[in-house]
Design a protein that fits this description.
The protein is α/β, with parallel strands linked by helices. The protein folds into 2 domains: 4-64 and 389-435, Urease, subunit C, domain 1; 66-372, Alpha-Beta Barrel (TIM Barrel), CATH 3.20.20. It is built from 16 helices and 20 strands. The protein has helices at 42-48, 89-99, 102-118, 134-144, 180-194, 217-230, 242-252, 256-263, 280-288, 297-303, 310-315, 331-347, 358-364, 367-372, 406-413, 440-458, and strands spanning 4-6, 8-15, 23-32, 35-41, 49-51, 54-64, 66-71, 121-128, 147-152, 157-160, 173-176, 203-208, 234-238, 270-274, 292-295, 319-322, 390-393, 419-424, 427-431, 434-435. It has an 8-stranded mixed beta sheet with strand order 4-3-2-6-17-18-19-20. Strands 7-8-9-12-13-14-15-16 form an 8-stranded parallel beta sheet. Helix 2 (89-99) crosses helix 16 (440-458), helix 3 (102-118) crosses helix 16 and helix 8 (256-263) packs parallel to helix 9 (280-288).
Length: 469
């Protein structure tokens, strides 16, 4: 039999994350033109294919590239300045993000991409709110080669939240800025023409109606229609903090997810981001509409007021994608954090170690995350015809020896230290300590400069100085 040519062959213990959750103990994947063209036993694939390069080996563990389900790259210079502060999103995060110029925005994307690729992440989900940053963000994504679900949008209304004691004299209010929703959504439609939500390129467009406070009823209704028309996601921070719940009750007499239901935007295209304060009724509304949840477990602990009732979401069939949201930028950390915080809150109290299995967490970081972001036709599992988005782990690393149950060992014990290669669309973007598309020394200098700049902009907005130790 004449051998076929492949660009790359990856061998090892292949965790497919397909519908049957097959594991090929001595398997191989053939990659050509950025896609998986064949899979099978290592012996059979060696007979069928000759490759320009081979990766892995008998001891390697081969996984689908991880899906990072929610981040804002332009917040990465500020993350330490939010430590030990609540609430801080409008006071520190948002002003820092707005202060960046386009060049700085591009640097943040490269820095986040470097961190994610180092940890085996092949796809990130970025939400951008500043149209002035978009060209630089797109350029940086294309230069790094990481895959991205890129949700774009810009707020179109002013608002004021009357905090607790201010309510003695004032009320919360909002005011739509006429014409801005229509103008910005026209940009979104153009963006989706250039980066289709079901395209084959690195970037897939999405609609970002970031929050009920800054985006009008017009924006939500028309943005949802655009998402449906283009088979894209509509991504919304909702049920994020107490202030948002108070605002929605004061303006509409409805909780945040109830308000989304009133607007008719809860369907399979909606990705509810965080939803840490979702009530039982609101979880039911998301389930009935077949919406998805983007859950950032480390961010919940670091900068939020609550932890979502993840077992309840999952019991109602809601798809979950795990996000980093600039905390750690490492899906091994995100999986382990979800296991620990939900185990402590829900598992220990019920004496139930199986309420959330390692297999479920691994699915959230791969195929289920891809399903939530409507990327599963392209990535999230290792199957013939899908993009060659692959991570190769060193199965001989001490933390992964004496293995007895593959999903449990990966979720509980594996780290980015075991990542040998990260491959996106057949390109090796991280290879044994080297980032092949990112000039890390240059990014390091720019990141230090950016961090100093942002500290000067928002450092004094903290309630108290950062602790030294």
């Amino acid at each position: 039999m004449q051998q076929e040519h492949a660009d790359l062959v990856v061998t090892g213990r292949i965790v497919t994350m397909d519908m049957q959750r097959r594991v090929l103990d001595d398997g191989a994947i053939a990659v050509k033109n950025g896609a998986i063209v064949a899979m099978g036993t290592a012996a059979d694939m060696a007979k069928r294919y000759t490759a320009a390069r081979s990766l892995g080996g008998p001891a390697a563990i081969v996984l689908p590239g991880f899906i990072e389900g929610h981040t804002h790259c332009t917040q990465c210079f500020v993350r330490s300045l939010t430590s030990n502060e609540l609430p801080m999103i409008p006071r520190i995060y948002s002003p820092a993000q707005r202060s960046l110029d386009a060049e700085q925005a591009g640097v943040t994307v490269k820095l986040i991409a470097a961190q994610l690729l180092r940890a085996g992440v092949t796809t990130m989900c970025e939400g951008t709110l500043n149209p002035a940053h978009e060209p630089a963000i797109v350029q940086a994504i294309e230069e790094t080669g990481i895959r991205c679900a890129l949700a774009r949008g810009a707020p179109d209304q002013d608002f004021h939240h009357a905090a607790l004691y201010e309510q003695l004299r004032n009320k919360s209010w909002l005011k739509k800025r006429p014409g801005e929703a229509e103008a910005d959504l026209a940009h979104t439609e153009d963006f989706l023409r250039r980066y289709p939500a079901r395209g084959k390129g690195l970037i897939r467009g999405a609609v970002n109606a970031s929050a009920l406070l800054g985006f009008s009823e017009t924006y939500f209704r028309e943005g949802a229609a655009i998402a449906r028309k283009n088979d894209a996601t509509l991504q919304v921070h909702v049920g994020r903090d107490r202030e948002e719940v108070e605002f929605c009750l004061s303006i509409w007499g409805r909780r945040p997810i109830e308000r989304l239901a009133d607007l008719g935007v809860i369907d399979e295209h909606l990705v509810a981001v965080h939803a840490v304060l979702a009530s039982e009724r609101e979880i039911e509304l998301l389930a009935e509409g077949k919406a998805a949840l983007a859950h950032s477990p480390v961010e919940c602990v670091a900068n939020m007021n609550a932890i979502p009732n993840l077992p309840r979401f999952r019991s109602r069939g809601i798809r979950v994608t795990l996000g980093c949201d600039n905390q750690g930028n490492d899906m091994f950390v995100a999986m382990r954090a979800a296991w620990l915080i939900h185990g402590a809150k829900f598992g220990v109290g019920a004496y139930d170690p199986e309420f959330l299995t390692a297999g479920e967490l691994l699915a959230m970081a791969t195929i289920e995350g891809a399903q939530a972001l409507r990327l599963d036709d392209l990535t999230g599992s290792l199957e013939t015809g899908k993009a060659a988005d692959i991570v190769v782990l060193d199965g001989n690393a001490p933390h992964l020896l004496a293995m007895q149950n593959l999903p449990s060992e990966i979720v509980r014990f594996a780290t980015r230290g075991e990542v040998q290669q990260t491959i996106v669309a057949g390109r090796v973007l991280y290879d044994r300590g080297e980032l092949t598309t990112i000039d890390l020394p240059a990014i390091a200098a720019q990141a230090r400069k950016g961090a100093d700049y942002v500290r000067g902009v928002v450092g004094e907005r903290r309630y108290k100085p950062l602790p030294s130790f």
